[in-house]
Amino acid sequence: MSEIHGAVGAYVVNALDPEELEEFEAHLAVCPTCSREVAEFGETAAELSLLASVPPPPAALRGSILSAISEVRPLPPEPPAETAQAEPTGNGTQTVTADIRHAVDELALRRQQRRTRLLSVLLAAVLAAAVALGGVVYTLVQTRQAQVAQQAAQQAAETELLTAPDVQTYSATMKDGGQISFVVSRSLDRAMFIGKDLPAVGADQTYQLWTLEGKRPIADNLVAGGGDRQEFFRETLSGVTGLAVSVEAAGGAQQPTPSAIQAVTELSS
């Protein structure tokens, strides 16, 4: 690291690679100027980080910080206080004093300019993280809105089915226990499975719904086991003469396993 005094900002925002970090920390132990600036910038960075303290910064942030910091021109360390020798007396006193003050003022100005540039880098880094946070929050809000909309549509469809003028309910007890019902509306061309106290199935198993066209079973939606469940049939009721539910391997089957059929209901025409 050739310009080690200019690494203060990168050090504060944890943007140094392991080799640079080791070199800078060794320098920091013997440089009071850098130590003071690290403390000052660290306090400011801690306050700014409140703007975006939840998510990790985007992957490109480190590169942006290093690119911005590389444009900051480093300054030499301040001369120790003891270098200011006693001022000579006589006619040259005022001139020497003025020169010293001018040099000190210029150095202070340059240090302030460097501090301002580094703080700008820190602020840009935090703002970049805040923008990333905003994107995360926006995505979460959009996802939640989609979930709410889907739930509302599901509830509306259930209400429409249950209140249909020709709705019929077919109830049965499954072979392995649990009460089930098939709710059917020919006018809406829809059917729904409702299970109460369904027995739990293994992690490698699932309940599967079937529509029957005569003796031909057609695979339909899957239903998780355990507790109260309800699920619409995916298929319409055109040509359907019966409904069934079975226990199949996880992922479902194309044909029901005869011994795993839990209930079969014939529909009235």
Question: What does it look like?
Answer:
- The protein is α+β, with helices and mostly antiparallel strands and 269 residues long.
- The protein contains five helices and eight strands; from the N terminus they run H-H-H-H-H-E-E-E-E-E-E-E-E.
- The strands form two sheets. The protein has a four-stranded antiparallel sheet with strand order 1-2-3-6, with helices on one face. Strands 5-4-7-8 form a four-stranded antiparallel sheet, with no helix packed on it.
- Helix 3 packs parallel to helix 5 and helix 4 runs antiparallel to helix 5.
- It is rod-shaped, with a radius of gyration of 37 Å.
- It starts with 7 loop residues before the first helix and ends with a strand.
